[in-house]
Amino acid sequence: MRYVDAGYIVAIGGSFLYGLSLFLRRRRWERALSVKESTPDERPAVAEHP
Amino acid sequence: MSTVNTSERPVRTPWRPRWLVVVGVGAVVTTALTVWLGLWVTPPDEVQGNLARLLYIHPAVATVALYWAGGVALLGSLLYLWPRTRAFFWDRLAASAVEVGAVFSALTLVTGSLWGRPVWGVWWTWDARLTSTALLLLLELGYLALRRVPADAHIRAKRCAVAAILIAIDVPIVHFSVDWWNTLHQNGTILDPGFNLHVHGSMLWTMLLSFVAFTLIFVWLLAMRYRIEVLQDAVGDQELEVSLSERWNEDAELVGVGGGPGASGGDDGRGS
Fold this sequence. Notes:
Oligomer: heterodimer
Number of domains of chain B: 2
Distance between the termini of chain B: 23 Å
Radius of gyration of chain A: 21 Å
Distance between the termini of chain A: 68 Å
Number of domains of chain A: 1
Order of helices and strands of chain A: H
Number of strands of chain A: 0
Shape of chain A: rod-shaped
Strand content of chain A: under 5%
Number of helices of chain A: 1
Largest interface: A-B, 32 and 58 residues
Structural class of chain A: mainly alpha
Largest sheet of chain B: none
Largest sheet of chain A: none
Strand content of chain B: under 5%
Shape of chain B: globular
């Protein structure tokens, strides 16, 4: 049965891992888009130090 | 630098369409049922024994790689090349289908290999079906590499559409390879060329369910990949600008910490 089990793990696990990678990539690009779309006023003022 | 039609820009996050949730839940349920039926409920095959259980997975994965992904990629590419229907939607859809197809082509080769080792006695042989499927994977990887070559968005889309059509030429070769050549790979698993059923009863239903499961997985993955394609195009040209802006902010922060001239004046470091 080990070939059978390996086949199921590869097919379903591979699909799951690829789906997970897409989910993470989507989140990264959504974050990049929100950074891009934020106006300069909305961005954190990094130069304001005491 | 590529330019993109920004009229197709996406709405801001979160993006969770109801139909995609339904597809995702359906994919999980049908996949779980396929595993349960395939591993525990269906009887062993009288010739192959338990190894036949791999056939509840491998043909469905291959169907996605070959027909669903190949079909969507071809359709998207043709509709992009056709001037009346030209829109970036089709280009993105084709690109998404090719990437998902590449993953499933690789899974097809691995699951086929796991079945071939105990049945044929080899992990790999230069059989027409196997070789043409490996060629399909290489062509898909070539497409993805071509897509990363910097170019104007329309030029890139045209190049990729032509590449996808070349990939699609390999699909019927893979399909008919078992008929055209005397191969080690078996003919149709469910139907023979005369459309007679080879599989019956619970084995047939499990196999059909696996096709539904992997089709739903494909739709979900395709939608997710398409969304990324939209986001990439939306960020696109502005990405460099954002990176530079962040770099300027970092510089401004360093100047601020060091008590430099930019700190007291409230300069945000971006310049005019």
